[in-house]
UniProtKB/TrEMBL annotation:
EC assignment: 5.3.1.1
Name of the featured protein: Triosephosphate isomerase
Protein family membership: Belongs to the triosephosphate isomerase family.
Keywords assigned by UniProt, alphabetized: Cytoplasm, Gluconeogenesis, Glycolysis, Isomerase
Predominant location category: cytoplasm
Pathway(s) it belongs to: Carbohydrate degradation; glycolysis; D-glyceraldehyde 3-phosphate from glycerone phosphate: step 1/1; Carbohydrate biosynthesis; gluconeogenesis
PROSITE patterns for this protein: TIM_1, TIM_2
Subunit structure, interactors included: Homodimer.
Catalysed conversion reaction: D-glyceraldehyde 3-phosphate = dihydroxyacetone phosphate
Species whose genome carries this gene: Thermodesulfatator indicus (strain DSM 15286 / JCM 11887 / CIR29812)
Catalytic residues (UniProt): 96 (electrophile), 168 (proton acceptor)
PANTHER family, sorted: TRIOSEPHOSPHATE ISOMERASE
């Protein structure tokens, strides 16, 4: 089973339009010719349109960090998947732990967003992960199972053929603490097992599961060596083009 790696950068609430353009100018030449893996950048909404133009003709996909579940309507401050599709976005991060824990997103809302994203042929990256308290209470696998079962309830294999899952332990996001490759592999293998039970083995075998949580150039190789880790969702270390390019280019000859 050979799954194509995906290395995705989540800029969160960072970078103006000029900063976005300067980043892409530097980054695109650092990753030019990297064709054996997918690369994605998710700038803030205000930079998406400019980024889309700047990424034209490159090997870098454009992602959004969130979206609403409706096409349009009286939802002040929100952005719909229809709008994202219209400006050339390919991936949408759904249910990031900051959305769950700071903005109160529930599994039910996350499921609605996945449905909306799929309607526009956008690729959802469903983020799941346990808090430190949940891990210390021995609840990690139960939390992951619930997030998967609730977030993906009622979909068919055909609906979810593009789905990407990101395992992001909340205690490792932005903290400098990375899950060990063993901890990450245990969670990834469990996620794949649950998805095989929910859908089928072929679906689970083909699905890409990314690890997220303080990924850096120094730890990416050890994580990517594990059989069920198919890529990375990178926050802080994606903000500098040279650092993120090193992560993207893991395992390639210097
Ligand atoms: C993230 O935002 O998804 C993330 C993993 O952040 P960081 O790499 O900074 O921990």
């Amino acid at each position: 089973m050979k799954r194509r790696p995906l290395i995705a950068g989540n800029w969160k609430m960072h970078k103006t339009v000029p900063e976005t353009l300067a980043y892409i100018e530097a980054f695109k030449s650092l990753v030019a010719g990297v064709e054996d893996r997918d690369i994605m950048l998710a700038p803030p909404f205000t930079s998406l349109d400019a980024a889309e133009r700047a990424l034209e003709g490159t090997n870098i996909y454009l992602g959004a960090q969130n979206c609403h579940w409706a096409d349009e309507g009286a939802f002040t401050g929100e952005i719909s998947p229809k709008m994202l599709a219209d400006i050339g976005v390919t991936y949408v991060i759904i249910g990031h732990s900051e959305r769950r824990h700071i903005f109160g997103e529930t599994d039910k809302v996350i499921r609605q967003k996945i449905e909306a994203v799929l309607k526009y042929d956008l690729i959802p990256i469903l983020c799941i992960g346990e808090t430190l308290e949940e891990r210390e209470a021995g609840k990690t696998l139960k939390v992951l199972e619930t997030q998967l079962k609730e977030g993906l309830k009622g979909f068919s294999v055909a609906d979810l053929k593009s789905l990407v899952v990101a395992y992001e332990p909340v205690w490792a996001i932005g903290t400098g603490k990375t899950a060990t490759p063993e901890q990450a592999e245990e969670a990834h293998a469990f996620v794949r097992k649950i998805l095989a039970e929910m859908f089928n083995q072929e679906f689970a075998d083909n699905l890409r599961i990314l690890y997220g949580g303080s990924v850096k150039p120094e730890n990416v190789v050890g994580l990517m060596a594990r059989p069920d880790i198919d890529g990375a969702l990178v926050g802080g270390a994606s903000l500098k083009p040279d650092v993120f390019a090193k992560i993207v280019c893991f395992g390639r000859m210097e």
